[in-house]
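Sequence only, no structure available. Ideas?
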Amino acid sequence: MILYEYPFNERIRTYLRLEHLFRRLGELIARPHPLDHHYALTTIFEIMDVATRADLKADVMRDLDRQKQALAAYRGNPAISEAALDQAIAELDACFKAVNKLPGKAGQSLTENDWLMSIRSRAGIPGGTCEFDLPAYYAWQHESAERRQADLQRWASTLAPLAESIHRLLRLLRESGAPQKVMASSGQFQQALPQGRSFQLMQLRIDPTLKLIPEISGNRLMVSVRLMRHDADDKLHASSDDTAFEVTLCC
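Reply:
I predicted one. Tokens follow.
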């Protein structure tokens, strides 16, 4: 099944973007080729750009604290393991303290590295990181894979508290929903959202053999899905088939 996720607010949208970038960064650092490490470095710059939202750090800390309080409410529940609950709360508390210790915005310490910032200023220019533009960067790309990986790990470590916190918050959010089977009639699906609950994320799973692509829109009152098909003319065309898929609403 292919999983599509749709955020209902800007905060979760930012979390999902950062999760996507952190996942890409981890995969690129692990590879040995200089080209992979070039894109790992540009991914770090992308993370810094996304993380410049003034209230991101406060949002993450607020969500970590909210999740701690929500888990603490399960104390004394005979269906819940106290040991597992204590561990989950301790992990959230560790994330809270680590994010709180970050100086300023995520990646701010990297902005004091003139060598990195010279690469960042050229990375947005098409072909701007050629050897004649950045000979020091070109020389670094000829270092051993181990040396480059160690440097990338060192730079990425300044972003690790944010990465770990977002990973835990999104995992708890995803675990809050229960999947349900639904049917798109003639390729269209609409569902009114239950009132009194604040949903933050919708997950949609579609069988990849159907070759269908969902166009999702939604707000606090309703969600809508239109199923599209990528045809030979390289355009998306609306499907008219009745199609079953799975929806999960997470709050």
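The chain has two domains: 9-171, 177-250.
Hope that gets you unstuck.
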